Amino acid sequence: MAIKQEELEHVNQELDGLMAILSHDLRSPIQTLQAYGKLLREKVYAQIDNDSKHFIDRIQHTAYHMSTLLSDLLSLSKVNKIKNPYEEFHVNDLIVSVRESVESDFNRFNVELIVRDTMPVIYSDRVKLREVFLNLINNAIKYSSKIPNQHPVIEIGYTQKDNYHEFYVKDNGIGIEPKFHDKIFELFVRLHSRTEYDGTGAGLNITRKIMNSLNGKIWVASEIGQGATFYFTVPVLKKD
Ligand code: ADP
């Protein structure tokens, strides 16, 4: 039996509510874990053997990972609830602001950013689009920063289509096999272990949810070892 759209929306709302409660209620025990982990490290780390040091590292790392997972869950549950006012803004300003917030990673990995085309002024949800650029740029850095003898090069481009704006964020990283191009947008899907690349596997799912909420689309073009290009579109809207 087909589920009615209304029922689906209701179930989704319930799930979002549940995620918000869970991520809120779990925050406090995790903070306690983090605090005791820190105290333990300060008090005994210098005097214990390597195995015990490793156990403290694992506790702290796991607590950190859980707190990141919770923030991701909270962001996911908020995507459809939060509707920021639409505003007119220059996409170039948005890119500059995102670049500033990842300044330390840019310096650490010697990232080169190329803004290929003249960016447009658009009318949209600036806050959500900032999140999209931020997620894609963070991934672009992460998945291109461990390749020997090259530094990450990120290119941002733009094409004005008939009734939508099309942007892309391209990197020179490890690339993604075509059979995973849809899969990576699912929640908690990751193609690598956390020891290879840290992360929760929620970023692209959040990004796709944001794009859906803006009536836009997102997809990837990539081959393994050839870098990845993430394209996304937003409708052309006029401020009235
Ligand atoms: P996370 O980066 O936390 O694992 P994401 O949802 O952002 O989660 O990405 C899902 C998976 O997609 C990643 O684990 C990685 O395997 C792959 N991926 C995302 N962006 C890139 C990229 N720019 N280059 C290569 N692989 C990527």
Helices and strands in order:
Blueprint: H1 5-25, H2 27-44, H3 50-79, E1 87-90, H4 91-101, H5 103-108, E2 112-115, E3 121-124, H6 126-142, E4 153-160, E5 164-170, H7 203-213, E6 217-222, E7 228-235
Parallel strand pairs: 2-4
Antiparallel strand pairs: 1-3, 4-5, 5-7, 6-7
Helix pairs in contact: 1-3, 2-3, 3-7, 4-6, 6-7
The structure holds adenosine-5'-diphosphate (ADP).
Can you give keywords for this protein?
240 residues, alpha+beta, Helix Hairpins, Heat Shock Protein 90, 2 domains, five-stranded mixed beta sheet, globular, binds adenosine-5'-diphosphate
Notes on the protein architecture:
With 240 residues, the protein is α+β, with helices and mostly antiparallel strands. The protein has 2 domains: 5-78, Helix Hairpins, CATH 1.10.287; 87-235, Heat Shock Protein 90. The chain has 7 helices and 7 strands; from the N terminus they run αααβααββαββαββ. Helix 1 (5-25) runs antiparallel to helix 3 and helix 3 runs parallel beside helix 7. It is globular, with a radius of gyration of 20 Å. Bound molecules: adenosine-5'-diphosphate. Adenosine-5'-diphosphate binds at residues 139-140, 143, 171, 173-176, 184, 189-192, 199-205, 228.
